[in-house]
Predict the structure.
Amino acid sequence: MAVLLTGGTGFIGSHTAVELVQQGRQVVLLDNYSNSQPEVAERIGRIVGRQVPAVEADLLDEAALERVFSDFDIDSVIHFAGFKAVGESVEKPLAYYHNNLTGTVNLLRAMSVHGVKKLVFSSSATVYRADNPVPYREDSPLGAVNPYGWTKVMIEQILRDQAAADPAWAVLLLRYFNPIGAHPSGLIGEDPSGLPNNLVPYVARVAAGLLPKVQVFGADYDTPDGSGVRDYIHVVDLARGHRLALDRLERPDRLGGVEAFNLGTGRGSSVFEVIAAYERACGQKIPCQTVGRRPGDLPVVYADPALARAELGFEARLTLDEMCQDSWRWQRNLSSE
């Protein structure tokens, strides 16, 4: 029996694949390579010591999905696949709703046909309303501020409705905060197509001399150093969270239904703190420029991870310095290719 990872060669999917294979699980990767590369599967194989099956397919292609479920003995799914750039979602909302929602519905239909009813969903802290007090708890009110976030809210609702209609469905919603870092081998990491949308990949490219400077959007927030504060979590810790989530779904006493868990560290780091940690990692000064705030950005966002600790046994272990060190190792490897 195998676990299907949609978006399995992406940033979080690839690290989760490593975690699951090293646990002894059979894994199948599915990806359309819109924001990753086919060679990631080979790199995963180098880390774990054996080749992992990888299928090029799109969730919008129902016939391709049917072939995947027919060709492999799949008993559970971790669903990562989807468009994920916040800014682009504002510019192209219909593309985001079509890709993320229709792709998920197609996946659930294929799972239903083949009797696969265990699912871990890659959700996001963007599902929480902007006016929630920090730290965000799983019972904090939901309500996104951009189309990307709304696709996550809507998919969570689709999954709740499916589980209500068929109580055999067992679903875990994992709400990530800010994943950064890379595998310590330096073989896999975050490599976004085009200009990075997230802070650390952008800082990494500035450190590597590929971009001129980091723009800091707002230094006048009510925070210790004026810059925005976020809950950064190492992608390796996050991958371990997925393994623990899958373990929970397979417990003999775990019945159907839907549960949501925050995956974060429970503490925030400012933009300037991240840049300083990256400077320690790469051993050089990183040029940056403070510019105006971006519309919709919040001063402080971080998780309350108590529920994941109590119910999953999950706790983030790796520090901000380790996150930046691993990211820099990965960036140097990329730059030398």
Observations:
- The chain has a mean pLDDT of 96.
